[in-house]
Amino acid sequence: METTTNILLDGKAIAAKIQQEISATITELQPQIGRSPGLAVLMVGDNPASAAYVRGKERACAKVGIASFGKHFPTAITQAELSFEIANLNEDHRVDGILVQLPLPSHLDAPSLLQQIVPDKDADGLHPFNLGRLVRGEKGLRSCTPAGIMRLLQEYQIPLRGKQVVMVGRSILVGKPMALMLLEADATVTIAHSRSQNLKTITADADILITAVGRTSVITSDMVKPGAVVVDVGMNRVTDANGNSQLVGDVDFDSVKRVAEFITPVPGGVGPMTVAMLLQNTVISYSQNLKTL
């Protein structure tokens, strides 16, 4: 049975709304704090996708009034050199948020570098201290992509309490913090992954299905409960027979949209929300300066 109504979860529009809120907050706080908030995005190497993400983040910063202190390092930078840069940013009073753009070259130890960021400047919400706060249900900086999904569901007034939610993917970036946030909202959560048996049976029971696998067409229409909410975190670049490339998600969008009641597009769904939450985390850190005045 296919649904006759289908609503796109428009992350681009909601992100624009959040950016307006952030801009208004900065305008209110700036006279009291005496400066603009600052975000430092550190990028290593020449990964084209990473470079595009960083440019997008810097444009978003400029739009809302956040100063950018980002740096681009050569691939050959050492662990010690990058650690030194992070230590300097930790001490820089102009910088409220620090983000290390992933993935890093293989010779660098990403977890160690992320742990060196002061937790209150952890704009990506990935420091063990902030993840611990999430586990304990305490206030703190939240992982950007899961926090963006929660806000997107809230904006479309999609209830979570008591709902069956399936999270396909178990990464520290999305799957694990997403499950914790959903549990905090009283959802019943199942985490599935690449080694789950009978994935179709698991996903077909979901009122809300979230996928962050990084492979095209992992989710097809026969795996989705009619009337479900489908959130696609995947960002995969594919090339057609004519050599034209495009971004697609993990979900077979054209078939699933005929079954789901709500669905995120790719691009324009989760991606803009992730950037909006990065800005929000930076401003949350920035607002803490009021307590020291």
From TrEMBL:
<dbReference type="Pfam" id="PF02882">
    <property type="entry name" value="THF_DHG_CYH_C"/>
</dbReference>
<dbReference type="InterPro" id="IPR036291">
    <property type="entry name" value="NAD(P)-bd_dom_sf"/>
</dbReference>
<comment type="subunit">
    <text>Homodimer.</text>
</comment>
<keyword id="KW-0521">NADP</keyword>
<dbReference type="GO" id="GO:0004477">
    <property type="term" value="F:methenyltetrahydrofolate cyclohydrolase activity"/>
</dbReference>
<dbReference type="GO" id="GO:0005829">
    <property type="term" value="C:cytosol"/>
</dbReference>
<dbReference type="GO" id="GO:0009086">
    <property type="term" value="P:methionine biosynthetic process"/>
</dbReference>
<comment type="similarity">
    <text>Belongs to the tetrahydrofolate dehydrogenase/cyclohydrolase family.</text>
</comment>
<dbReference type="Pfam" id="PF00763">
    <property type="entry name" value="THF_DHG_CYH"/>
</dbReference>
<keyword id="KW-0028">Amino-acid biosynthesis</keyword>
<dbReference type="InterPro" id="IPR020631">
    <property type="entry name" value="THF_DH/CycHdrlase_NAD-bd_dom"/>
</dbReference>
<keyword id="KW-0486">Methionine biosynthesis</keyword>
<comment type="pathway">
    <text>One-carbon metabolism; tetrahydrofolate interconversion.</text>
</comment>
<feature type="domain" description="Tetrahydrofolate dehydrogenase/cyclohydrolase catalytic">
    <location>
        <begin position="9"/>
        <end position="124"/>
    </location>
</feature>
<keyword id="KW-0368">Histidine biosynthesis</keyword>
<protein>
    <recommendedName>
        <fullName>Bifunctional protein FolD</fullName>
        <ecNumber>1.5.1.5</ecNumber>
        <ecNumber>3.5.4.9</ecNumber>
    </recommendedName>
</protein>
<feature type="binding site">
    <location>
        <begin position="169"/>
        <end position="171"/>
    </location>
    <ligand>
        <name>NADP(+)</name>
    </ligand>
</feature>
<dbReference type="InterPro" id="IPR020867">
    <property type="entry name" value="THF_DH/CycHdrlase_CS"/>
</dbReference>
<dbReference type="InterPro" id="IPR000672">
    <property type="entry name" value="THF_DH/CycHdrlase"/>
</dbReference>
<keyword id="KW-0554">One-carbon metabolism</keyword>
<keyword id="KW-0560">Oxidoreductase</keyword>
<dbReference type="GO" id="GO:0004488">
    <property type="term" value="F:methylenetetrahydrofolate dehydrogenase (NADP+) activity"/>
</dbReference>
<dbReference type="GO" id="GO:0035999">
    <property type="term" value="P:tetrahydrofolate interconversion"/>
</dbReference>
<keyword id="KW-0511">Multifunctional enzyme</keyword>
<dbReference type="InterPro" id="IPR046346">
    <property type="entry name" value="Aminoacid_DH-like_N_sf"/>
</dbReference>
<dbReference type="InterPro" id="IPR020630">
    <property type="entry name" value="THF_DH/CycHdrlase_cat_dom"/>
</dbReference>
<feature type="domain" description="Tetrahydrofolate dehydrogenase/cyclohydrolase NAD(P)-binding">
    <location>
        <begin position="143"/>
        <end position="288"/>
    </location>
</feature>
<dbReference type="GO" id="GO:0006164">
    <property type="term" value="P:purine nucleotide biosynthetic process"/>
</dbReference>
<keyword id="KW-0658">Purine biosynthesis</keyword>
<keyword id="KW-0378">Hydrolase</keyword>
<comment type="function">
    <text>Catalyzes the oxidation of 5,10-methylenetetrahydrofolate to 5,10-methenyltetrahydrofolate and then the hydrolysis of 5,10-methenyltetrahydrofolate to 10-formyltetrahydrofolate.</text>
</comment>
<dbReference type="GO" id="GO:0000105">
    <property type="term" value="P:L-histidine biosynthetic process"/>
</dbReference>
